[in-house]
From TrEMBL:
<comment type="similarity">
    <text>Belongs to the peptidase M48 family.</text>
</comment>
<dbReference type="Pfam" id="PF01435">
    <property type="entry name" value="Peptidase_M48"/>
</dbReference>
<keyword id="KW-0479">Metal-binding</keyword>
<feature type="domain" description="Peptidase M48">
    <location>
        <begin position="68"/>
        <end position="253"/>
    </location>
</feature>
<keyword id="KW-0645">Protease</keyword>
<dbReference type="InterPro" id="IPR051156">
    <property type="entry name" value="Mito/Outer_Membr_Metalloprot"/>
</dbReference>
<keyword id="KW-0482">Metalloprotease</keyword>
<feature type="signal peptide">
    <location>
        <begin position="1"/>
        <end position="19"/>
    </location>
</feature>
<keyword id="KW-0378">Hydrolase</keyword>
<dbReference type="InterPro" id="IPR001915">
    <property type="entry name" value="Peptidase_M48"/>
</dbReference>
<keyword id="KW-0862">Zinc</keyword>
<keyword id="KW-0732">Signal</keyword>
<protein>
    <submittedName>
        <fullName>Peptidase M48</fullName>
    </submittedName>
</protein>
Length: 264
C-alpha cells in the first residue's frame, strides 16, 4: 500500500516537474532547479579540492584535462547541433586529477569531475581513461544527482520542491543536500540507482565515441576493473555499479549505437 502511494505521488509529481535525458529520452523527476544543484555542487567541489591533494604528475594531469575537455567539447557540439544547449546552461566544467590510491572517479552537477591516480593503472591509456570520464560526465549530463535528490523529496516530503522545503524546514533541506553529496562519508560516493548506472554506461560509450575514442575499449577496461577487484570487496568505483557479467552484456548491447557516433 505504502509503495503504491509512493508510486502514485511520484506519478503525479512527474506530470508537473519533469525533464528528459538527452539521447536516451528517459523522463525524469526534477524538483530541484539546475541552479540550486550547481551552486551546491560548486561549493562542495571547491571544498573537496581544498581538502585533497592534486597530483603533481604533470603528464597524467594533462591527460585527464585533455580527455575531459575532448569529451566535454564533443557533448557541447552534439547538444548545439540538436538545439539542446540550454541543458548545459550554467555548466562550469573542470577536470582534476587527485593524488589518491583509491580506484575511483566521480562527477558532480555542472561538469565538475575528479579522477583519482589509483584508477590510472587500470585505465592504462587515454582511451581507458575516456571510458571512466565518459561514464562520469554522463552522470552530470543526465543530471542524475538532481534526479536522486528529487526522488528523495518525492518519497519523504510528498513531492515538495527543494525551494518549498527550504522555506518550510530549512534544516531538513540542508540535511538532504548534505546527504546527496555524501558529506561525512567522503565526497564522490553519491549513490546512484542501478538504472542510472546503466544509463551512464550507455551515454558514456556514446560520449567517448563522439570525442574520437573507440568505445569498444570499454569491454577490456571493465574486465581489468573486475580482475583488480577479484575475490575481495570490490573497489568503491565498482561497488555502486552493476555486476561485471550484467555490465558486459549491457555494454555489448549498447555498442552498435555507440559505434554510429564513433569518428576515427
Ligand atoms: Zn556511475
Amino acid at each position: 500500500m505504502y509503495k503504491k502511494l509512493i508510486a502514485f505521488s511520484i506519478a503525479v509529481v512527474m506530470m508537473v516537474a519533469c525533464t528528459t535525458v538527452p539521447i536516451t529520452g528517459r523522463r525524469q523527476l526534477s524538483l530541484v532547479s539546475d541552479a540550486q544543484m550547481m551552486q551546491m555542487s560548486y561549493d562542495a567541489y571547491d571544498q573537496f579540492l581544498k581538502e585533497n591533494k592534486l597530483s603533481r604528475d604533470a603528464q597524467a594531469t594533462a591527460m585527464v584535462k585533455r580527455t575531459g575537455q575532448r569529451i566535454q567539447r564533443a557533448v557541447e557540439q552534439y547538444m548545439a547541433a540538436n538545439n539542446m544547449s540550454d541543458q548545459l546552461q550554467g555548466f562550469q566544467w573542470e577536470h582534476n586529477l587527485i593524488e589518491d590510491d583509491q580506484v575511483n572517479a566521480w562527477a558532480m552537477a555542472g561538469g565538475k569531475t575528479v579522477t583519482y591516480t589509483g584508477i590510472l593503472p587500470i585505465a592504462q591509456n587515454e582511451t581507458g581513461l575516456a571510458v571512466v570520464m565518459g561514464h562520469e560526465i554522463a552522470h552530470a549530463i543526465a543530471k542524475h544527482s538532481n534526479e536522486r535528490m528529487s526522488l528523495q523529496l518525492a518519497q519523504q516530503f510528498g513531492g515538495q520542491t527543494l525551494s518549498a522545503l527550504a522555506g518550510a524546514q530549512p534544516g531538513v533541506a540542508q540535511q538532504l543536500l548534505m546527504t546527496a553529496y555524501g558529506a561525512g562519508s567522503g565526497l564522490g560516493v553519491l549513490k546512484y540507482g542501478r538504472d542510472q548506472e546503466s544509463e551512464a554506461d550507455r551515454l558514456g560509450l556514446i560520449f567517448m565515441a563522439m570525442a574520437g575514442y573507440n568505445p569498444q575499449e570499454a569491454i577490456p577496461f571493465w574486465e581489468r576493473m573486475e580482475a583488480k577487484s577479484g575475490g575481495q570487496a570490490p573497489p568503491e568505483f565498482l561497488s555502486t555499479h552493476p555486476s561485471a557479467g550484467t555490465r558486459r552484456a549491457n555494454l555489448q548491447s549498447y555498442m552498435p549505437e555507440a559505434m554510429k557516433y564513433y569518428k576515427k
